[in-house]
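Sample intake sheet
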Amino acid sequence: MSYTALYRKFRPSEFDDVKGQDHIVTTLKNQIKADRIGHAYLFCGTRGTGKTTVAKIFAKAVNCQHTEDGSPCGECEMCRSIALGASMNVIEIDAASNNGVDNIREIREEVAYRPTEGKYKVYIIDEVHMLSKEAFNGFLKTLEEPPENVMFILATTEPQKLPQTILSRCIRMDFRRVSEVDLEIRMNEICQRKGIEIDEDALKLVATNADGSVRDGLTLLEQCISGREGKVTRDDVLDALGAVGEETYIDMTNAIADGDVSKCVLSLNEIFSAGKDARQVMGGLINHYRNLLLTKYVKKPEHILNMSLENVERVREQCQRLDTAEINNAIILLSKTAGEMTYSTQPRVLLELAVVQLATGMSQMVQMQPGTQMQSKQPAKQAQQMKPSPETKKTAPSQGSIEVKPTDEPEREEVKSEPKNVA
């Protein structure tokens, strides 16, 4: 038999195996137990959170002959046929490749026939936001009033692209990102079943980089354990990620704080010589400054920082020598550079430039320079406007002299002219 990926081999087959979606699992189980099953559901959420998996489990549960507390038994004929993908009652459609009106017309013709076995004919339409506008319009009536033995489960990662007419006809359920704790528990169960030895720190690192996606976490775990013998360590995970350890970021940050540009550049050159990705290094450096910021205000940061206790103490010592303004400035500059690196053909150069700016203090000068120029130019401009020109000094004296001179000059002329007239 050919090899099967971990996320496919260990896909949950019952509601109790689903991690991190207790609010949705409880709702669906209660509807099955109360026999209040809707005709249209909309499953929303990011990738790898279990939308399609829960849809298949729900399809088994509504057709199961012997449900147990709202969950499928997994032993009856319907459960086995659906699990093998051989049931004619569960139709899975990829809307990305079947997004036209003709595909919707086929669905409208098929729903008129009763299911060959079981209670419901379930249509699971994945990536439903990819349907065309005409397909959505042709689907409205069928979605609103389907036959009583037909159910639609729509799954999407971008619900904002769906028309409001579709949203109003479905029971919406939002899938959350799976927490790191749940990911660690799930991956630890899989490692035990596979007989794989892995460090706890390595599991935490895998769960952190999964970003709430079970599929991404299992794919990364598979990448770490493939081709390796013995126990999987944190260093193995770092090699698979193309990332560097926290110790490297701590040393680099100390060099930046000391203004040692040479040490910073040499450290980056050593990292890149090891084949690390510049964007991954940038993300790790931003995350390190975030850890410094959190350590400033959290009394026990070891509960939220994914690192060893020794490194937590080193981060605590390092944050004491840096003030909040320096940390904030570094996060802002590095985040801006990370956005520019996304479309750059030379991400390494941008990373080196950002580190040099932080080490030399140029980043603060760049941010303060526009404001400083405005403050220096504004008073000079006002002074220039208020300063009278040489011509104005001759023709327009001060306000005090304007009131006196018009009265004095005529009096002097009259005094001088009166003696001449008398003579």
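Comment: The first helix runs from residue 6 to 9. The two ends are 140 Å apart (CA to CA).
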